[in-house]
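Continuing the series of single-chain predictions for the mutant panel. This is the parent chain; the variants come on the following pages.
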Amino acid sequence: MLRQIVRYGVVGVLNNLLGFLIYLLVTWLWLDPKVAVTLMYPIGAVTAYFGHAKYSFAYSGHTSHGLFRYAIAHMVGYGANIGMLYVLSDRLGYPHQLVQALAIVAVAGILYLLFRYFVFPNRPAAS
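Parent structure:
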């Protein structure tokens, strides 16, 4: 399980680091943070799919089932991300940059659990 978490982290860091930098740039250019997340979230989800399916979770099930469940998991993740921005930034006044950085970590935790037990439920063969 530790190996799986490390692999998940590697895929996630590589995928989210560039996305967060782009987020900072486009919000600095006066794009609303929630609009930026709405535009960028699907791109990040698509680019991370194969890394998570093959590398992080060694998924060998049906691709169509995995993709459908992956989309559902990301709808949950997107909702959590937007919800955090709304509550913590819009309502409570915390800087959106900090909130988004925290949201990336929180959503990563949520998605790990959803991926492990719902999206890619098969267990990789022992190494």
